[in-house]
Amino acid sequence: MPRYPKPDAERRNSNRPAFEWTILPAEGRPGPPPRLPAGRKWSSSTRSWWKALWRSPQAVCWAPDDPELHRLALLHEVVWAAAVPPVGLLAEMRQIEDRHGLNPKAMLQLRWMVAEAAAAPAARPAGQADRARRDRMMRLADAG
After folding, report:
1. In b/e form, how buried is each residue of 37-55, taking b as 16+ CB within 10 angstroms?
2. Could you tell me the residue ranges of all domains in the chain?
């Protein structure tokens, strides 16, 4: 089972991490989104999804002409137009989303953190969770 990086305040090992966290701005990417690929009539739901996608904090790390994001838009269009979405296309969408940090697991793997959430791990001193757990265990041992 893969282990994902913890925020620096929760780490037990004092070794310097191999990669630093990338702090993403909470307001997302400024400016208008890039245009969807030409040569196709896009549905209004795909156009609004595309705009929302490019307003996300992760969008600051993407290239506007990324072919994988264009493929994701095409898959979005096909999957949501189908009465029963093909499972293989859903799996492909998930893989592209993972590569671009569009879910919490992918953000951990890429070591991306949204600016507002970046302050939360540092606010708790290292070891505080361990002490609280030990205190609970001691109370349980004393009671039983």
Report:
1. eeeeebeeebeebbeebbe
2. 8-143
The answer to whether 60 touches 28, Cβ cutoff 8 Å, is yes
Does residue 126 contact residue 11 with C-beta atoms inside 8 Å? yes
Supply the pTM of this predicted model: 0.69
Question: What is the DSSP code (8-state) at residue 84?
Answer: S
Q: How many other CB atoms are there within 10 angstroms of residue 95's CB atom?
A: 13
- Read off the pLDDT of residues 31-69 as tens digits, 9 standing for 90 and up: 999 999 998 999 999 999 999 999 999 999 999 999 999
Q: Which helix (H) or strand (E) holds 114?
A: strand 112-114
Alpha-carbon gap, residue 7 to 28, rounded angstroms: 21
